[in-house]
Amino acid sequence: xxxxxxxxxxxxxxxxxxxxxxxxxxxxxxxxxxxxxxxxxxxxxxxxxxxxxxxxxxxxxxxxxxxxxxxxxxxxxxxxxxxxxxxxxxxxxxxxxxxxxxxxxxxxxxxxxxxxxxxxxxxxxxxxxxxxxxxxxxxxx
Length: 141
Known about the structure:
about 140 residues, alpha/beta, Rossmann fold, six-stranded mixed sheet, about 30% strand, globular
């Protein structure tokens, strides 16, 4: 059997709503800092009821943070303090020719803050999002 025959099929997620790709559930506690995408905000309002805009809520399941500079990425250590242990920070930034930071910049800043990246989602036509989490090995058992 060839290697290609054993490789799992790729899944097509293009039909899924953004809010589903981001993993937000009805019971999710969400903090939104600087993200003002109208479609995202509509889907978020339709899905979750515990949403903080412009401020960080303690024990957030998700923090959506708009960052387009390495200076803004230095805030990750502080953002991490507001997460549940199994929560996630989504960094939303410009993509393509408009991008001011690269995924590698986000990954480097995440590592410095004690986080790891584990997923990328196309946020919109102009933005991308990178999911950061606390590594399993650093979560209390």
